[in-house]
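1st attempt posting a full record on here, be nice pls
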Amino acid sequence: MSDELEREWSIGANTAGGVVGALVGAASAPVLGPFGVAAGALAGALAEDYVTRYAEDRVRRVRSMAAAAAEEKGLTVDDLVAASLEDEHKRELLARAIQESARATEEHQIIGLARAFATGAISEDRAIVDESMVALETIGQLRGPHWRLVSILIRPSPSGESDHMNFRSGKPYALPWLRRDIIEEDPGLAPVIDSLIAKLLGLGMIEDRAHNVSDGRPRWALTGFGHACADYMRILGHNQAAS
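the predicted structure (as tokens):
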């Protein structure tokens, strides 16, 4: 566990009662490291107002994540957190869920973090715990425009060619998308499309399916991990994430 996460957890445990109190306390410790520098740049009452509101935002987000995660598995928050204390890897998973949800500014992102955390917290399979950790870290890095692109790629391209290799293997991948088709589907992504593609590609969420094509243009589609993250986010293929 990182030094910052350890400090946040310690603050939460010492200033609030119970498991939920510890979670909320961890989220409400904003003036650490760069946060302290940011607050110090403000003056007097304005600095106090900034710190108070920032802490309140973090508390609300972590509470929302914890409640959504517990509801996902039909447990109380205390029971779900207790399950995550079973071993070192799950404790780290909990710490990461707190950190990522405290910074999440979009409701559907908090839902995705909650579902990823809940999946790992109750699993006895180390591989699933590890996958949940990677999903948490990935979801925490992405914002609305990234998910708009994912919600396009989860559907078949209107002009895409069939992926014969995956068709034979029976994998439920959608037909791949050309860059121009993505922009036609969501023109608002045009100014940032290359940045979005590069980010998702770097995270292993998408891949180029252009095999044996003459024009050399990439055909973008979600990977298995991309589909898993879309599922955590409850992306339904209707250009939005369900809340």
